[in-house]
């Protein structure tokens, strides 16, 4: 039985448990007490909880370990002795057998795999039955245990609420698990990468050409400095040159000058810019902006301009970031007390003098934090550079030339056809780790600045 | 009472917030050498009226002012009136001290800088020092002019705001409950300061503390529900009010 | 006294009152107003240019994309009795009709009809799938098989491009001739929404990708919404202030800003990588390229968005309501589920829709977990290989054939319509249920 059907079955059993327990609780002898501690429905939830939770936990755990058990059983089959000893090839054949076993009427390409189809299928069926039976048994056992406990004086509500609390806690721990999961998985693959490539070659090498890797010294063509430079140049320089003035000035105009009517319309319109998917920006950058930038460069007398220039990707990325900078600036300016603005206006300062000499300096920490977050978003942005930037790793200051970024290389490295353990694939994880650490640092600094700034005005 | 022309006059001034009328047909004169106090229960329109005198109501989206207000005979709501100049001439001190998050020196120097009042750095320093002296703050801060203005105590902050207003060399100073956020000692200092500033500037102070009005002002205006109920010499208002409502208010029957 | 003396001492160096009427002062004020107007102009310019960019982007997409919803059709004269096709009439009313017509050589009959009508090479004027629409017509009315008739069939990509003025001079001339004869024309074609990917730009559609997107969003919602809301409740209502809680908060705030591609790496390593568990190598936990993996990955990505929005919504419910409920003896759990949560729900839903919109437009993490396959048949379930709309856009944008440009833009229009609808719904919810306490 597949996992979904099993979950439905368990849920159905839970419903039955809920109904029976509720009707039983409704008939309790109140024994003189005016009220029961818990309502009948709460007794029902208590039983349903005991039916569903242990069974579901078992299904989840079984789902994780049964493939390993199936594999173990198949390997004990006599035909398995013909399997190649080498891990990678053996796993490929086993995977093929497993795939065929689930699709009746299809034959495996490899004869050894074909021999293993029947045993695989048998093992799968057997472990499936064990899993199903185990889940149903646990559901009944849990239900029975809970059912014996409910009586008029039983505080079912407290037990159910303790269970709910536990659920809430587990839900909030998923955030930590995800963070730890990201960090560990990136770290794990990166450690394997740095087992093959020296860390200094990677961090300080200036030559990046993963297409041609010398197996003897893979680090020679995996120096990531050009990537770091390209990422910085496109995301933190070109994009910010667009996003900071535009974002800041629109926030200032919309909060300080615009009539409420204008503000009510323009603010959501600018927010749409942030809601446009990055793949659309990427397509636009590649199809419309990049050729225009190239023509512009040629018109300026620079005939060697790349049609995948850093400028095109950076410009479009900057536009994408405008609403982000704008809303951060909006928030920080709004957090400056009105009294300060009034104080300046009351002395005869013009609006622009008030804004540039009082409001912006007062809001500066918030604005700076917003810019840090914007940079972190820009350097992590993927689709625009994948579609509009080049794959050629140059270190250049010329915005009309091509530059590549960390995110673009991650996608290129992982979408090609290559085995999982090669330095080329693992390099993507090392790049990912670098990106993760840098954005994390930027965020921590920014959030701390924002927090301190908020406190200053509270 | 002198025959000299009034520094500011208001004739039939009404203020609306959208549909709601907050000030109703108020007429009042403000003279140079006096402190004028506006008293009345909260929500009576006295602060709103005060803000019309240097057009700070312009900063509130839906506020509308009718009637005529003049400064030295010039209509301040006429199209020819320059708001920036007006506010430099009619300064304002707010209820809550609102120093800029800059140094003490920069707080006071801000006004002279934007209006271009100082010819040189030495001149600017002199204006700052004089303003701080006049606000009675000089002795306390002269050694730490570069400290942040927000690091001062509440009373000091308020005197800093007064110094900031003085530095632009205004003719009228509007004070919107300047001592309501302060402790009694700081309040006494502010009141003493108002005494000293009197004569150099026309001062208008809004307060809901009647003793304070009696102590610092020569003229008192009593506002109620947007109306100017009674306006006259402070002594008369407090000892022999003409209107029943004024009497009720100052004897503490409501408000 | 001290103050008084200080005032006295400055009296001597009193300066003249500021004269605002001097020429210098007036000039200065005029300059300040010019600066004011300049500043204001920059502000307007920033807003207008940003909005103009958005308008330009949308106009470009619509201008290129509207052709994607149409197709060029060509009038094909076809003489069935002369084609030599042998069709069992009886089978045409049965389920075997498709097979019977294909077996009777309909495809070749249609091609030769095209060659006969448009001269040598004429079969390249009609789409490879043209015979499918002929088949449809026959199934609709079998009597056409007895006569010479004319039928509108989809034209090939070359003819289609030539209609837009692109192509070699031969094809342009040929198409111009057909056009003058009134044999070729463009028509609205909603097959684009009903069929899936193909190698032929005139035959592609987005249904497969759209269905993949819907399946992925289903998984994302199923995971991210309950987990996000429950953890928001825990953090806002019950969590004790301690280091663990701080750690959870820091994790959530930082996850919200982690680049999306990192989640792709996580999905690749955790869901699709091989693990070593108690000495066994556990193969990929989940099938590659499937909506299930995509949905899980995106759920982890948007969960922080939902948590943060839900916390703000819960925080906005005034404490007086909690006190009132606690005061009549409700348990803390009842307070939250009976009172706080219903009141916070509009805010929570708004945040969830915004998060889902973000997931719907996301591309990069899905590329890494292999949802970039060439999907001709729409996925039937959560574990089938699938692709999603944004990835489909990415894949088509890489195609060299000019016909894909308009199809890419058309797919973008569909994606934007979905996103605008979701964001519009979120704004509507926010405005309708916004409560000031």
TrEMBL record, chain A:
InterPro entries: MetI-like, MetI-like_sf, Phosphate_PstC, PstC_N. It is found in: Cell inner membrane; Cell membrane. GO terms for molecular function: phosphate transmembrane transporter activity. PROSITE patterns: ABC_TM1. The chain crosses the membrane at residues 6-23, 44-65, 129-147, 168-188, 227-248, 269-290, 310-337, 358-379, 426-450. One of its GO terms (cellular component) is plasma membrane. It is a multi-pass membrane protein. Residues 229-446 form the ABC transmembrane type-1 domain. It comes from the Bacteria. Keywords: Cell inner membrane, Cell membrane, Membrane, Phosphate transport, Transmembrane, Transmembrane helix, Transport. GO terms for biological process: phosphate ion transport. Part of the binding-protein-dependent transport system for phosphate; probably responsible for the translocation of the substrate across the membrane. Belongs to the binding-protein-dependent transport system permease family. CysTW subfamily. This is Phosphate transport system permease protein. It comes from Sphingomonas xinjiangensis.
From TrEMBL, chain C:
Keywords: Cell membrane, Membrane, Transmembrane, Transmembrane helix, Transport. GO terms for molecular function: phosphate transmembrane transporter activity. InterPro entries: DUF3333, MetI-like, MetI-like_sf, Phosphate_PstA. It is found in: Cell inner membrane; Cell membrane. It is a multi-pass membrane protein. GO terms for biological process: phosphate ion transmembrane transport. Belongs to the binding-protein-dependent transport system permease family. CysTW subfamily. PANTHER family: PHOSPHATE TRANSPORT SYSTEM PERMEASE PROTEIN PSTA, PHOSPHATE TRANSPORT SYSTEM PERMEASE PROTEIN PSTA-RELATED. NCBIfam families: 3a0107s02c (TIGR00974). This is Phosphate transport system permease protein PstA. It comes from Sphingomonas xinjiangensis. The lineage of its organism: Bacteria, Pseudomonadati, Pseudomonadota, Alphaproteobacteria, Sphingomonadales.
């Amino acid at each position: 039985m597949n996992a979904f059907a099993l979950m439905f079955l368990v849920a159905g059993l839970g419903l039955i448990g809920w109904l029976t327990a509720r009707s039983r609780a409704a008939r309790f002898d109140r024994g003189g007490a005016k009220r029961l501690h818990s309502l009948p429905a709460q007794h029902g939830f208590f039983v349903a909880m005991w039916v569903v939770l242990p069974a579901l936990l078992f299904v989840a755990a079984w789902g994780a370990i049964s493939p390993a058990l199936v594999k173990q059983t198949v390997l004990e089959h006599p035909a398995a002795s013909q399997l190649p000893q080498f891990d990678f090839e053996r796993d490929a054949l086993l995977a093929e057998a497993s795939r065929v076993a689930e699709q009746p009427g299809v034959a495996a390409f490899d004869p050894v795999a074909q021999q293993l189809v029947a045993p695989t299928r048998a093992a799968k069926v057997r472990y499936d039955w064990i899993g199903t039976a185990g889940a149903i048994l646990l559901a009944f056992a849990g239900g029975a245990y809970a059912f014996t406990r409910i009586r008029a004086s039983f505080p079912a509500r407290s037990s159910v609420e303790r269970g709910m609390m536990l659920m809430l806690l587990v839900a909030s721990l998923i955030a930590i698990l995800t963070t730890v999961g990201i960090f560990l998985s990136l770290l794990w693959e990166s450690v394997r990468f740095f087992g093959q490539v020296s860390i200094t070659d990677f961090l300080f090498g200036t030559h990046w050409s993963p297409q041609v890797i010398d197996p003897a010294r893979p680090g020679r063509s995996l120096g990531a400095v050009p990537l770091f430079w390209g990422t910085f140049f496109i995301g933190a320089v070109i994009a910010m040159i667009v996003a900071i003035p535009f974002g800041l000035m629109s926030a200032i105009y919309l909060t300080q000058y615009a009539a409420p009517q204008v503000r009510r319309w323009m603010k959501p319109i600018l927010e749409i810019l942030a809601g446009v998917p990055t793949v659309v920006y990427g397509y636009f950058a590649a199809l419309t902006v990049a050729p225009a930038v190239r023509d512009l460069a040629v018109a300026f007398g620079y005939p060697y301009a790349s049609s995948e220039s850093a400028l095109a990707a950076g410009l479009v990325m900057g536009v994408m970031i405008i609403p982000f900078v704008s809303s951060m600036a909006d928030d920080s300016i709004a957090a400056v007390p009105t009294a300060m603005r009034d104080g300046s206006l009351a002395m005869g300062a013009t609006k622009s003098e008030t804004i540039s000499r009082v409001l912006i300096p007062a809001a500066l920490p918030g604005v700076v934090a917003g810019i840090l977050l914007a940079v972190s978003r820009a350097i992590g942005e993927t689709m625009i550079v994948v579609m509009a930037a080049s794959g050629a790793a140059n270190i250049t200051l010329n915005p009309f030339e091509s530059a590549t970024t960390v995110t673009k290389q991650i996608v290129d490295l992982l979408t090609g056809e290559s085995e999982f353990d090669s330095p080329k694939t693992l390099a993507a994880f090392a790049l990912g780790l670098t990106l993760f650490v840098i954005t994390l640092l930027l965020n921590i600094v920014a959030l701390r600045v924002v927090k301190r700034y908020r406190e200053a005005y509270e | 009472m002198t025959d000299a022309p009034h520094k500011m006059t208001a004739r039939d001034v009404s203020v609306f917030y959208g549909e709601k009328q907050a000030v109703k047909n108020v007429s009042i004169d403000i003279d140079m050498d006096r402190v004028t106090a506006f008293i009345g229960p909260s929500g009576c329109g006295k602060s709103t009226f005060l803000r019309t005198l240097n057009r700070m109501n312009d900063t509130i989206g839906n506020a509308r002012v009718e009637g005529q207000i003049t400064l030295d005979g010039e209509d301040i709501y006429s199209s020819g009136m320059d708001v920036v100049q007006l506010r430099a001439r009619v300064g304002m001190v707010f209820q809550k001290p609102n120093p800029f998050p800059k140094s003490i020196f920069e707080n006071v120097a801000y006004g002279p800088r934007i209006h271009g009042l100082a010819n040189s750095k030495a001149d600017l320093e002199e204006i700052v020092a004089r303003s701080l002296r006049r606000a009675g703050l000089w002795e306390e801060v002269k050694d730490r002019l570069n400290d942040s203005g927000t690091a001062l105590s509440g009373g000091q902050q308020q005197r800093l705001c007064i110094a900031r207003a003085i530095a632009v060399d205004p003719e009228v100073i509007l004070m919107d409950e300047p001592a309501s956020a302060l402790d009694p000692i700081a309040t006494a200092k502010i009141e003493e300061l108002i005494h000293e500033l009197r004569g150099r500037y026309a001062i208008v102070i809004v307060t809901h503390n009647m003793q304070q009005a009696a102590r610092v002002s020569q003229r008192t205006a009593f506002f109620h529900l947007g109306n100017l109920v009674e306006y006259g010499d402070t002594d008369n208002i407090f000892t022999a009010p003409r209107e029943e409502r004024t009497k009720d208010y100052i004897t503490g029957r409501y408000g | 006294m001290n103050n008084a003396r200080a005032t006295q001492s400055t009296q001597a160096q009193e300066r003249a009152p500021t004269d605002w009427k001097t020429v210098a002062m007036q000039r200065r004020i005029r300059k300040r107003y010019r600066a004011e107007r300049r500043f204001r102009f920059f502000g307007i310019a920033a807003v207008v240019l940003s909005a103009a960019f958005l308008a330009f982007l949308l106009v470009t997409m619509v201008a290129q994309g509207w052709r994607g919803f149409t197709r060029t059709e060509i009038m094909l004269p076809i003489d069935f009795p002369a084609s030599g096709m042998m069709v069992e009439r009886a089978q045409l009313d049965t389920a075997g009709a498709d097979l019977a017509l294909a077996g009777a050589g309909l495809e070749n009959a249609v091609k030769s009809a095209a060659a006969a009508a448009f001269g040598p090479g004429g079969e390249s004027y009609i789409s490879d799938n043209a015979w499918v629409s002929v088949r449809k017509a026959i199934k609709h009315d079998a009597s056409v098989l007895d006569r010479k008739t004319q039928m509108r069939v989809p034209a090939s990509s070359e003819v289609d491009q030539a209609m837009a003025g692109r192509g070699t001079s031969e094809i342009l001339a040929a198409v111009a001739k057909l056009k003058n004869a009134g044999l070729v024309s463009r028509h609205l074609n909603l097959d684009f929404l009903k069929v899936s990917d193909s190698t032929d730009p005139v035959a592609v559609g987005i249904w497969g990708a759209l269905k993949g997107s819907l399946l992925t969003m289903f998984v994302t919602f199923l995971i991210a919404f309950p987990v996000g809301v429950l953890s928001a409740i825990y953090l806002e209502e019950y969590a004790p202030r301690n280091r663990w809680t701080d750690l959870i908060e820091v994790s959530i705030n930082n996850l919200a800003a982690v680049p999306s591609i990192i989640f792709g790496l996580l999905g690749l390593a955790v869901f699709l990588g091989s693990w070593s568990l108690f000495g066994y190598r556990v193969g990929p936990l989940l099938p590659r390229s499937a909506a299930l993996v995509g949905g899980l990955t995106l759920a982890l990505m948007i969960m922080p968005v939902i948590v943060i929005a839900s916390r703000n919504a819960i925080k906005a419910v005034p404490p007086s309501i909690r006190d009132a409920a606690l005061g009549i003896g409700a348990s803390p759990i009842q307070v939250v589920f009976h009172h706080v949560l219903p009141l916070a729900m509009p805010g929570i839903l708004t945040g969830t829709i915004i998060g889902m919109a973000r997931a719907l437009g996301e591309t990069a993490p899905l590329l890494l977990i292999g949802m970039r396959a060439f999907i001709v048949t729409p996925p039937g379930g959560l574990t089938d290989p699938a692709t999603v709309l944004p990835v489909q856009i990415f894949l088509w944008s890489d195609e060299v054939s000019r016909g894909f440009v308009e199809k890419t833009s058309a797919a973008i229009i569909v994606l934007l319509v979905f996103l605008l609808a979701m964001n519009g719904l979120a704004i509507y919810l926010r405005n309708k249920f916004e409560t000031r306490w």
